[in-house]
Amino acid sequence: MTVDEIMADLLSHGSESIKKVLLKHGVREPFFGVKVEYLKPIRKKIKIDYQLAKDLYATGNADAMYLAGLIADDDKMTKADLQTWAEQALSTNINEYTVPWVAAEGKLGFEMAMEWIDNPQDHVAAAGWSTLGNLAALKEDGDLDIDAYRALLQRVIKTIHTSPNRVRSKMNSFVISVGAYINTLSPEAVAAAGEIGAVYVDTSGTACKVPDAVDYINKAIAKGSLGKKKKTVKC
Question: For helices 62-71 and 36-46, what crossing angle results, to 10°?
């Protein structure tokens, strides 16, 4: 499929009602309002295509950008590719999900994430914290820099309440991921979450709630899923 064929296909499956919902959740124009469940059959047809993913992402259409993340060849993504994607990811579904997924499942995830969390642009910093959380869920503990993650927990404790809105949200998710997926740091994540306390995030009048980190980590422990890694974070 070509970019033009895919864009025409996406347009034909757009929905104004879906657009209204997504706009409230931080997705920015232009986009058609295509359900993610429809993107998956296209992904199945294309499978993996490095150049097509980059071309789709370059359209700036949030539906196409999301699809680009699903078909990206993560290991081929260069530092320049990932930086461009992060900077252009103005929609929350792209900077908090698509870009972190691709970064975490590639070779440069940790390096890029550590740069992104220091970026003055909120959407890039949010992508960095989300990438770090995804790496915790994907990588075996032995493949993670545990000391770095321990230091990051301390950074979150000190800065979460003064950080920008969506960065605050992704910091909270990071603590949950560390607690639920990194065995050696789970007690420290619970302690960090307790010290942090309630995290306020402006959800723009939607029904979304900020997850309680201690509660989520304890649920993972109770279910016996503590430290059980994911095969993929893309969905």
Answer: 40
